[in-house]
Recover the amino acids of this structure.
């Protein structure tokens, strides 16, 4: 008699059917939210030019770092887009502290990530998520500004 694996039930056809149904439900759920997230991102990228962001975030001081986090928070900064975008913003006069807070806030709390978290957690947890993301990015930006 072959040994049974831990947690395996006797009916593998039922398990495969349950897995398939759950995978389809999860895929539809993610597709719905990610489609919305990328649509919002496309609108944001189309109508908010990088030079306008750099004009607001230039100079030194705490205000530019805070603004960097607030502007970066909804931005979708994936690994391909982040480096050239921030490089261009720095070349247009964005402060290094603002760039640091912009990159960190964008990576943690961008619209696609925020929508995914919103769909999974309660509003208080979501507020804590956003608050910690923005606060952490501001602190990192202030530290970078102090070292620049």
């Amino acid at each position: 008699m072959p040994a049974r694996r831990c947690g395996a039930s006797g009916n593998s056809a039922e398990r495969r059917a349950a897995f398939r149904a759950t995978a389809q439900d999860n895929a539809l759920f993610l597709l719905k939210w990610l489609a919305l997230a990328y649509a919002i991102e496309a609108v944001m990228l189309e109508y908010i030019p990088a030079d306008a962001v750099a004009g607001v975030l230039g100079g030194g001081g705490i205000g530019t770092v805070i603004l960097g986090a607030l502007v970066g928070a909804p931005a979708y900064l994936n690994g391909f887009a982040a480096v050239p975008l921030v490089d261009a913003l720095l070349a247009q006069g964005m402060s290094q502290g603002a760039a640091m807070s912009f990159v960190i806030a964008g990576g943690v709390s961008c619209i696609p990530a925020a929508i995914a978290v919103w769909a999974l957690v309660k509003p208080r947890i979501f507020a804590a998520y956003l608050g910690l993301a923005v606060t952490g990015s501001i602190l990192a930006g202030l530290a970078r500004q102090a070292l620049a």
User: Anything to note?
Assistant: Residues 12-147 form one domain. The helical segments are 12-47, 50-56, 62-72, 79-91, 96-109, 111-120, 123-147.
